[in-house]
Amino acid sequence: MPEIVKIDDTTYRIENEFVRFFLLVGNDKAVLIDSGFNCENAKELAESVTKLPLMLVNTHGDGDHTAGTGAFSEIYMTEEDYYGCGVAERFPNTKLVSAKDGDVLELGGRTLKIITIPGHTNGSIAILDVENRRLFAGDSVQNGSIFMFGDKRNPEAFEASLNKLIAMKAEYDTVVASHAEPILEADFVDKVLESWNEVRSSGADYPVIDMHGAKVHDCRGKYCGFFLA
Question: pTM of the predicted model, to two decimals?
Fold first, then answer.
């Protein structure tokens, strides 16, 4: 069963097996960031915490972040992932509200800013919780292992997106991750980039493992890992 964990009085993380998603509550509206894995009742879980109007924002379209998406009539995410990750096909009764870089969502006393960070998927986004100085980074910043194999991934864009987040570090104090350790210091973005450069330049013979039917290299850097083709 998913477990709802309070971060503060208006912010919750919902622990859902190996992944987590988030509920952010303002004075007038609430946002669910992602909708979990095998968790079709994600909307009901959020509504057990708040009765405010609720919208869904998806950081990206992978299946472990979208299980409860079908309960929403509208999905706020990038067009690239709505179509490119098969979300439109899996949830044909949903309507896309296209997320763009720099979009601002006002929840009432709480501002969320959208930052496009392609790489892990072509349409990945991060959400900056402006007043609380938190960055919800989806899968792109974590101390676990980041999926970077298959046709949805773009290594060059991933590196550029990490540099983009580093350039705006003055705007956030912590990174909230969807996998592995939940709360990371802002400079962990630098550590992900350091690990990425380490893995990509090392020439090491990393072990090959089976990952969802694909043979991938299990590459571990100093601070985090990557699954690479």
Answer: 0.97
